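Marked as duplicate of an earlier ticket. Keeping the data here for the record.
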Amino acid sequence: MAKEAKPSNGDYGAKQITVLKGLEAVRKRPGMYIGSTSENGLHHLVYEVVDNSIDEALAGHCDSIEVTLHRDGSVTVADNGRGIPVDLHPVEGIPGVELALTVLHAGGKFDKDSYKVSGGLHGVGVSVVNALSEKLTVTVDRDGARHQMTFVRGHTSQKLTVIGMAAGTGTTVTFKPDPEIFSVLEFTWATLAERLRQLAFLNGGIKISLTDERGDTPRNEVFLYEGGLIEFVQYLNRKKKPLHPKPVHFNASKDDIDVDVAIQWEDGYNENTFTFVNNINTHEGGTHLTGFRSALTRTINDIAKKGNYLKKADFTLSGDDAREGMTCVLHVKVREPQFEGQTKTKLGNSEVEGIVRTIVGEQMAMFLAENPAVARAIIEKAVGAARAREAARKARELVRKKSGLENAVLPGKLADCSVDDPALSELYLVEGDSAGGSAKQGRNRQYQAILPLRGKILNVERARIDRILGNAEIRAIITAIGAGIREDFNIENARYHKIIIMTDADVDGAHIRVLLLTFFFRQMPDLIEAGFVYIAQPPLYRVAKGREEYYAYDEDERIDFTKRLEEKGGRGNVALQRYKGLGEMNPDQLWKTTMDPDTRTILRVTLSDAVEASKLFDELMGDNVEPRREFIEANAQYVSVLDV
């Protein structure tokens, strides 16, 4: 007799379908709305509220924004805009401010007559900030009255009330992130300051202030840049040697699309191009970047040919040649931006490409014709880059995974893994042959590959592509990874999805680590964007007594483990070993502490702010010594352990 079939997952009917009303969905799945509930998500709350104020500024109704960090962990964002509407909504029957703060996708950004362009559209709105706050109070100065409303975890606790008279207009939002939601509750001054400075550059003439009341002495900084993008580029290049004193700048509009560009070339070899759409950092690029690059390359080639800079008729400058040493900020304002890409930071509007190409081509050609000295400096640098590119051609061919060398020979010192699936494969870049030998013996050969590196690789921040590809260690890295380099790079060809930098826990090891990170950031940034680059965390000490042993990764752990072992059997007889290098570890110790996925700690390298990262690499790894001296003087006080 056949048995009655029973549901494998319990009863499933209409009553099992959960309906999350209002802002419940946000509190249930906060990561879907702000990315994470750690530091990045915490700061995103501030950006969302500030974006509302910036949108008021873009609409021409606000020129001052104040952000204040309070001692109790709350934040206040105040602006002198029009104030969120307080009248009753004709359909919903509640005040506009309550609607904006309690309903997802409710706001003036969806009305083309209220806001021509909006950066906030890319975000999630102030209603999500309300949902994820322990308490939020909004104060609106409008129509001669001061209105106030309070919420607790997204629910109204005090209805909209007039609390006094108001001379002007504006909105003030004070919120305290909910400890039930966030694992991190402390805002970082530097993180907020960089974002607010960036917004002030992108919106010239708007004053944005940041005040921190948490310390013994209140801290305040005001960001106000009348020069807009010109000052942005000068800020990025302030410690470099520009080829021309003032950045090239033009701002023009066509078909309701505004294009604002500032460009300056310096004597370095790296391109630093940062693109924005409605104040959103589009670090994945998009149609605006494509249009800009094609126009720039064509225009510089045209001027070079007319000026007889190119002696051979068949000789042309590539895009990389034209952009060598260029720092550029491109900001376009689009009425209805369409974003795509993995992190939704790639502009997809097809019409933007042609408009940017036309504007940049016309304006750049006009500028270069009117400034022949600047044109000569730019073109001569590009021609020098082209010569270096030609000199590097043979070296480049040796490291291409595709394009003619499908079966490029892998480096002889690479101990490869046996699996063919890149998603399962790990490549350890190991400092020194001794550590490389231990790693090769201790690894899991099935999925872990080892590439020992001899000494310190070339600092790519100070070198052209011909010197970079002439470095044996760098060639070995590129060939092992198999995805190419620069414009030849194709992440689909990467042979490993975990590339782990494993260096000694000392000053030299830190230097090698920074050199490798500089290389990846400048030559293979897509690896970092994809989350393929990691840093291993080897222990500093082995603390043992008898058969019991612990591995300490910092001084506090060493003290704790030592006390623990002493308490078990009296003082003394506790063996302490300080690892000065990876090569001092036995293969089994290296596996147990640094390579075993079940017990190791590896840090993924992420890129949260490309503008700040580029500036930091320029300062710390560039030719100019002064920025490094200033950095050391400013940060020496934070060094707790100095390996000498």
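See parent ticket for discussion. The chain has three domains: 24-223, 229-391, 406-538.
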